[in-house]
Amino acid sequence: MALVEAVGVRKSFGHTEVLRGIDLTVDRGEVVCLLGPSGAGKSTFLRCVNHLETIDAGRIWVDGVPVGFRSSGGKLFELREREVAAQRRDVGMVFQRFNLFPHRTALENVMEGPVQVLGRGRAEVRAESLALLERVGLAEKSGSYPAQLSGGQQQRVAIARALAMKPKLMLFDEPTSALDPELVGEVLDVMTSLARDGMTMIVVTHEIGFARSVADRVVFLVDGAVVESGTPSDVLDNPQQPRTQQFLAKVL
Amino acid sequence: MASDVRSDLEVVPLRHPWRWFSGAVILLVIVGLGWAMAEAQIQWEDVPGFFTHPVMLEGLLNTIVLAVAAQGGAIVLGVIIALMRLSANPVARWFAVGYIWLFRGLPVLLQILIWFNLALVFQNISIPMLFSVPTNVVMTAFVAALLGLGLNESAYMAEIVRAGLSSVDPGQTEAAKSIGMTPLTTLRRVVLPQAMRVIIPPTGNNFINMIKGTSMASVIAFLELIHAANNISSRNLEIMETLFAAAAWYLVMVSLASIGQHYLERAYGPR
């Protein structure tokens, strides 16, 4: 069974329809990159998977569970915010603007989820969190506050913070778009190694090179609908749709 | 022209004759004021005695208790009203708006007088079938002053807390949600600690105002510092001497509050 299954997802902000019926499945261990011009609804769709946005129509399942709902007796019951919070534990998210907690050190940022949300012991979590910081190459920065770190370092701490919850699925919302060009590589390297380790990932990105080398599948969105999807070599090197061809001609 | 500037030319610094002049004027005014105070018909040697007079100390204690209780209550109420103001429930939102409108809109002195005279219109305070007490037993001068000062302050605190909560980047709440935090944990661990930076400075300011505002309770004969000063001077007619002793206590309290605020701000300061 697919880990993520989205069927007919629709979403409007006021009178603007940003998602016009998106169907998408992501298998376990699969890395899917969402590409497309800005305003295509890529980020909105990603946020819907984590229920940071509610959807107007359609349904999203993560690991067989309907996002934002509890199914019982043939009906779907909308969940309370604290029940949604429990669903989100299994899904990690990395934001364009990092969103680290500025009043806590790198290590405290990583420990916050396991300690406060899962109620695990500090000593055990501390050791795990240090190992995670080591994995993203920031062991020596554990005591630094976010303001003392570069953008690339902050984003790597944010990845470690998401991984600390041992998620089944990682969502990346333009993780390198707010970074200086020379810092993009260090974040993509961490994401690449994560993908190699078998993490299921949905990545909204403008990094075509990353999509080509890491993604199992590339999905191209325009105006809230999937225009084309397939392996990177199919979509990126031999696009069939005129919208895809236009977009790639501009960014490549 | 750059070629005219040579290192061997003498540099003449700009003179500031007006700084010297205005500085001298200010010093002269201070000396004059000091001389006037020394020449005034004040029994300076009596002031320290009034400063530590038992009635004055009782007034001091009552002032501190009233100020701390009213501010403490106002902070708790203010957080609740601010959360109602930001709530998704329209009834709660409107209640908060009306609450702030009413308690911020009326003069504190008027509110204190209304609470103190409540027995004139309500003989008993009761919740049917639960309890009932005579109003004039409950509504002592302290309680009336506490309600008058505290409710007014809570309306200001609600606005301060709301500004603080709104100042925190929404991305912080989203990040907290994304690691599975419940709304209450998000508020406690992520939003409030960051909102404190915005909340503490105006709250410290308001507390200093609160310390001085307790003097309004003197009109309903609550024994705070000014009422204590009046009690002492009604016997010896040294009105200015007792008022100066009270004034000294206000300055001591306000100075201590300012120091406390400084350390609080440092504790929650930016990293």
Question: What features would you describe in this structure?
Answer:
The complex is a heterodimer of chains A (252) and B (271). In chain A, the strands form three sheets. A six-stranded mixed β-sheet of chain A has the order 8-9-10-3-11-12, sandwiched between helices. In chain A, strands 2-1-4-5 form a four-stranded antiparallel β-sheet, with helices on one face. Chain A is α/β, with parallel strands linked by helices. Chain A is built from nine helices and twelve strands. Chain A is globular and about 50 Å long. Chain A is 37% helix and 27% strand. In chain A, 46% of the residues are buried. Chain A has helices at residues 42-49, 81-88, 106-117, 122-135, 151-163, 181-196, 208-214, 232-237, 242-251; strands at residues 4-13, 16-26, 31-35, 57-62, 65-66, 69-72, 75-78, 91-94, 169-173, 200-204, 217-222, 225-230. In chain A, helix 3 (106-117) crosses helix 4, helix 4 packs across helix 5 and helix 5 runs parallel beside helix 6. Chain B is mainly alpha-helical. Chain B has a single domain, classed as Orthogonal Bundle (MetI-like fold). In chain B, 73% of the residues lie in helices and 3% in strands. Chain B contains eleven helices and two strands, in the order αααααββαααααα. In chain B, strands 1-2 form a two-stranded antiparallel ribbon. In chain B, a hairpin with a 3-residue loop joins strand 1 (124-127) and strand 2. In chain B, helix 3 (54-85) runs antiparallel to helix 9 and helix 3 packs antiparallel against helix 10. The longest helix of chain B has 32 residues, at 54-85. The radius of gyration of chain B is 26 Å and the shape is flat. Chain B starts with 16 loop residues before the first helix and ends with a helix. The relative contact order of chain B is 0.13. At the A-B interface, helix 2, strand 8, helix 3 and helix 5 of A face helix 8 and helix 9 of B.
